[in-house]
Design a protein that fits this description.
Strand content: 25-35%
CATH superfamily of the largest domain: Outer membrane lipoprotein wza domain like
Oligomer: single chain
Structural class: alpha+beta
Distance between the termini: 28 Å
CATH topology of the largest domain: Outer membrane lipoprotein wza fold like
Number of helices: 3
CATH architecture of the largest domain: Roll
Strand order of the largest sheet: 7-6-10-8-9
Radius of gyration: 20 Å
Length: 174
């Protein structure tokens, strides 16, 4: 099975640009609401202004808001953050699939699941291998994954990570 380095950050459910979440502050309705993380990784929150959220989990963001609200605004605030849309965590499937595009990533998502999300392959797709590209420390790293071996049960399915790009080539024979 081909190996691609694992990005440890992709294994955590961290927030990123475009993600939508709800902040609930116990017994403080005026501080409860829904926000979207901007392209710079920040969002605006009442009393606190600009808050950096990208790279934090929902739990970590809740603790950060508790700390900042406790610093002169509220006594013992209790904050909970609920992620509504994980728009920053996607995989791209391009090439010879029925519906090329970006799809929501779920921890544990596999190559087979991503191809299924894209509606399956076209009748001109190369099924022997598919290329998976991953960004590691700012550099693109690619591997050819033996798709046919996986679909025939001879190899385990290939685990994807948030941000991966799957490319399905077109056969030279039509």
């Amino acid at each position: 099975m081909p190996r691609l380095p694992v990005d440890p950050g992709s294994l955590r459910e961290t927030l990123g640009p475009g993600d939508v979440f709800e902040v609930r502050v116990f017994e403080e309705e005026s501080l409860t609401g829904t926000s979207r993380i901007e392209a710079d990784g920040n969002f605006t929150y009442p009393l606190l202004g600009t808050v950096k959220a990208a790279g934090l989990t929902a739990s970590e963001l809740g603790k950060l808001l508790e700390e900042r609200l406790a610093d002169g605004y509220l006594r013992d605030p209790q904050v909970t953050v609920f992620v509504q849309e994980h728009n920053s965590r996607q995989v791209s499937v391009i090439g010879q699939v029925q519906k090329p595009g970006r799809y929501a990533y779920r921890i544990g998502m596999t190559l087979i699941e991503a191809i299924a999300e894209a509606g399956g392959t076209t009748n001109t797709a190369v099924l022997s291998t598919m290329r998976v590209t991953r960004l590691i420390d700012g550099k693109e790293v690619s591997a050819d994954v033996p798709f046919k071996e996986i679909t025939q049960g001879r190899m385990a399915d290939f685990a994807l990570q948030a941000g991966d790009m799957v490319f399905v080539a077109e056969s030279a024979i039509k």
